[in-house]
Amino acid sequence: MSNYDNDSEMKEVMQNFNKETEQRFYEYDKHMIKNRQKCKDQCDKEIEQIIFKMQN
Question: Which Pfam families match (predicted)?
Fold first, then answer.
């Protein structure tokens, strides 16, 4: 058992830290999903152009 478990002020600090950290990870994850989609779209577009050039 941690010394901080019975300290209400420290508990609150830890909860706030966890909440903020969770929010940062959530925002980071959203950002990465958006970036991956953007890269995938760009890659698909380039592949499409290569295929088009090969056909002509």
Answer: RIFIN
